[in-house]
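Q: What changes when 2-oxoglutaric acid is included in the input?
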Amino acid sequence: MQIDEPLALLGGLTAEQFMRRHWQKKPLVVRQALPGLVPPATRAELARLAASEDVESRLVSSFDGRWAMRRGPLAKLPPFSKPGWTLLVQGLDLHLPAAHELLARFRFVPEARLDDLMVSYASDGGGVGPHFDSYDVFLIQAQGRRRWRIGAQKDAVMREDTPLKIIANFEPTEEFVLEAGDMLYLPPGWAHDGMAVGGDCVTCSVGFRAPWRAELARELLQRLMDDEDRPYANRVYSDPKQPATAHPGQIPNGLQIFAADAVARALKEPMALERALGEALTDPKPQVWFEPGEPLPDGVDVILDRRSRLMYDDAHVFINGESFRAAGRDARLMHVLADERALSAKQVAQLSDGAREVLDQWAEDGWIRPAWPD
Ligand code: AKG
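A: The predicted holo structure follows.
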């Protein structure tokens, strides 16, 4: 990924400039960020995916001024000619190679922060209403036209008469109509409302994830404690010196010390926290499954399956919720695989026997495969 070259995707900014000037700071409208973009899914494909149990989808409508929302699977959609509805399909990158490739254009942001590609299909006037997101978003117009109104308002009072989180007093300060190929970037917390102008309006949202502090701490502590191999985890509280008490409601001080010690020991374990973080960040989403494959033939380039999440830190490689220690040349090659999502046959041949065995296991698990077309 070239981060110091001007990109049409970012309106002529380099990825470095974009991250410095706009990321988490201020919106950016890019005309013809992706000229000639073909929507990653047709209307029929979106409808098929929305009908599936394995895909997260929603139908939002505002017929006669009344907002309504239905979660998938959605067996039937309103007529395409009927104004005022939107179908939203989440995680399209997991299902369609074209969606995965579109998401990959944004890998100048660390993969640990990238979430998914959502695609919406709207009939004339369709939209989800004015709302806030807690995450950054790139809104790419893939087909048709959409009028966006945005504002940096503080008033976060929501309407109480709808099942959706719609801003009660929306005060937009800017407005623009995006045509196919145009893109709008919004930092977290910007009020925005996008309404389809004419039918057949397809918008792709590149979504990010940012953990809430408490949620992350809960997840990591759970992982640290669930690991049965760790000696600190397996000790029962004992109190042979507990005297008889006239205050049975009072929590014993020894139990408080035991609790604090349990957490402190877990955090002191060398690299346990880093390992738990890597495993958590690469854990597949619940609806993800892999088709088992074969060990790799010799002499082939390999690529990661589009559903695989591969990341690394200084001592480990993490893939799909598992961690491996890696050092030296093996680590360097695994880092290439994580950054490029591919390794050439020549690079595969440079791996140690142990690392090559690991790669074969990943191929059998369906996490990587020879770089043959889908
Ligand atoms: C968002 O992703 O925050 C949006 O506002 C997208 C809405 C849409 O595609 O209709």
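Observations recorded in class: The radius of gyration is 25 Å.
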